[in-house]
Amino acid sequence: MAVKKVQEVFEEPACGHNQAKSEKDRKKGCTKVAMPGAAAGGCAFDGAKIALQPIVDAAHLVHGPIACEGNSWDNRSALSSGSRLYRTGFTTDMNEMDVIYGGEKHLFKAIRQIRDQYNPPAIFLYQTCVPAIIGDDIETVARAASEKFGLPVVPVNAPGFAGGKNLGNKLAGEALLDYVIGTMEPEYTTPTDLNIIGEYNLSGELWQVKPLLDRLGIRVLSCISGDARYREVASSHRARAAMLVCSKAMINIARKMEERYGIPWFEGSFYGISDMSESLRNIAKLLVGRGASNDLLDRTETLIASEEKEAWAAIEAFRPALSGKRALLITGGVKSWSVVSALLEAGLEVVGTSVKKSTAEDKERISALMGEDAHMIETLTPREMYRMLADAEADILMAGGRSQFVALKARVPFLDVNQERRFAFAGYKGMVTLVSEIHRSLTNPVFDHLRKPAPWQPECRLTPLV
């Protein structure tokens, strides 16, 4: 069953990578295996865990050695407006005796202990490499525990060796489709119920978008999975429309919910002023097409005009210092084009953007934004990144936390735009925050001191003391 599910995810028809493949290559799936030491991007288990852990009122139990839970806990700053249970790490902490005799009984006892002590609305149960290798059947254990204790136990069969983080994201989506979505009904429905898919509320970014939707009378029925509650996800099949924020992560959820429940969807971005406005327009159009009042379109335009005016006024103060500055963007997926749009709006020049995790559609959007001469980087070694920064080809590096040391060595400002960031960049207010952080990094006086020769270097001449 697990092998069949992995193959099904490999052949996802809505995936941009699969659309560009031949039928023969599509059946091979994403079978590239990482070389030893090259798996810093995360494994399938890690991808599944980070995709589902933002369901904040559920318990997330990792079946495996304690290091799997330790390494996967808190690697994303997904915030909650309520329950803190998702911040508690649960693991079976498998040992040598479990490997010899099997860990299924141990797992069942762990589920019972969580039920007795925390009584969550559901438990997500994650498979890892060691129990998968010895043959522990988490689906059977989950089914038995659900019947015994009367609460949903959701098996997430995504052992690390199955593939990379992106595969794990999709396997997490399959678990929701198979065991969660459609199992409950919402207390009530409205003509403006919306699902947001692939948004994880990193640093509270959902909270910068949701107030805008509230002002339009649009209810977020479910966010999958940022700041989500289990019941919201379980009843998300009653939404009238959906927005997909990161197609690489959970496109299978959007496609299958359209097939099963007739929920239309589009892919959009909350980064940048123009992209944010376009997303609001698309949401309104889909909802009006599904029965919402026609005046939603006019109210959306009124809101956009007001928010854009306020955002542009706030950004204008930073523009003189940012105009002409060059940024190197090393990220991927939807951010490879959505953040580009935001930077160009702020007056910066983007000298290059990584497209390693981007689809063909992502690349087309980059070309539309940056022109035919757009510098799209497939791979960039730390050595080459350092050369670009040291040769002053870029004034600031915007990337994930692992790249910050290259920037510091090159004595160039760095801004974290990946999942570990502590600032929210979504929505109109998020755009102002992004521009403010770029400005603060570029104007930090410490870099002027760093670039000066050290006192012992021959270029430096000390003034003699009098």
UniProtKB/TrEMBL annotation:
Keywords: Nitrogen fixation. One of its GO terms (biological process) is protein-containing complex assembly. The keyword NADP does not apply. The keyword DNA damage does not apply. Residues 43-442 form the Nitrogenase/oxidoreductase component domain. Pathway: Cofactor biosynthesis; Fe-Mo cofactor biosynthesis. GO terms for molecular function: nitrogenase activity. Belongs to the NifD/NifK/NifE/NifN family. This protein may play a role in the biosynthesis of the prosthetic group of nitrogenase (FeMo cofactor). This is Nitrogenase iron-molybdenum cofactor biosynthesis protein NifE.
